[in-house]
Hints:
The protein is built from 14 helices and 17 strands. By secondary structure, it is α+β, with helices and mostly antiparallel strands.
Amino acid sequence: MPVVTIQGILDGKHEGKSVTVRGWIYRKRESKKTIFLVVRDASGIIQCTVKTDNPSWIEAEKATIESSVIIKGTARQDKRAPGGYEIAVDKLSIIGLAEIFPITQDKSEEFLRNVRHLWLRSHRMNLIMKVRSEVLRFTHEFFRKEGFIEVSPPMFISTACEGGSTLFGLKYFGRDLYLTQSAQLYLEALIYSLEKVYCVAPSFRAEKSRTIRHLSEYWHIEPEWAFADMEDLMHIEENLLRYICQKTVKNCRREVESLDADISKLKAVKTPFPRITYTEAIENLMAKDLKIKWGEDFGYDDEKALAEEFGGPFFVYAYPRQIKAFYCKTHRDNPELVMSTDLLVPRIGEISTGGVREDDKEELLKRIRELSLKEEDYDWYIDLRRYGTVPHVGFGLGLERLLTWMLDLENIIDAIPFPRTIRRFYP
RNA sequence: GCCGCUGUAGCUCAGCUAGGUAGAGCGGCUGGCUGUUAACCAGUUGGUCGUAGGUUCGAAUCCUACCGGCGGCGCCA
């Protein structure tokens, strides 16, 4: 008797046939003559019935919620079963008898976070993790189709990548090092060999942010591209988003709908995305009586107000120099502006930042001094402008922020199996 | 860094305003029930109320400090 997936039975592939399934008891209901075991495996959930005259009745009585089991029986359609199919059990074997499972119907956010290692078994987390996996697959597919080469940047770093963000320090054989906040500087080095590179890697931020859109460890999708300009950058970025969203609609419809996420929003992601300059955005916001002046960075309220207008992903570009990092290239015809662009979505705000990198050695040094950064820390990075510098662009996209938006998650912590936040690092 | 909220049985909460040594539902256990759908019905089992002080004849309730958790802003992806 072959081991089959529960989803296969629910899809009607084994109607009337003898099957074996392996999984865990999800729910249990008992009546005088029948025990109903709701069993889950990685693929789905199905009801199994055990009758009094079955020798397995005693095993079924013993079986507790979350016990692991092997079930042999007959798959059949039954209108009375949730999902329309069930297994009439011939033989039930308990592999691991579970103790009383702590998660029951009433559960608080705090409790579920404490038992995260067990909550991952829930149908909801199962679905989110599947979509996460697929989004990663689509990301890799997209970049490879576009000729990008995947590279592996370091996690231990000696100098900061971003100006503003806070680094996690650590002891490294007696020296002070940091956990990376972005692979960008290292990707920039790699384009001189490979031209088009990308990575999907963790980034660590010690910002003391307490919001539904911050993690201290998150996964960063970062491409870097030699001989490319701002137009190329925005183009590839919107194409990536469109590709991920359209493939998700196509391949993950069941998961997205089961999660009660708005699939029409994903379908609506078409290119080109709306684009607005920073200066236009400021004028727009001032007309709405929001308290912001040219030269200030957007607050969350500002981002929300802009996002409401567009209803989907959109770009803001050409920012004032003083609110962006040292490596951003200044507009040659307006030195007050840098060629930087953020991609924003409703509710979440920024999901990506990117731009043209400063490729002129003198301009870069000027910016490093302007921001009082230590020149010697960036010596290797400046080398990249000494030896055959090229115009190049790149961006960083937060995977979990993207998923939070795509799946309408209430909190970014559900986009990653073991979230790390300012107060949460166990389990 | 600033602001707000919160901590009572394994879980979800009530009780606290006007102090008199804890109550419900879920879960667990026992029994009942002709297929259940987060089954239902009955009984039963669970806690000294985050921690440490203080006020008081008496504190879960009032005061102080500390610890834990959640969210908002700022910052960021």
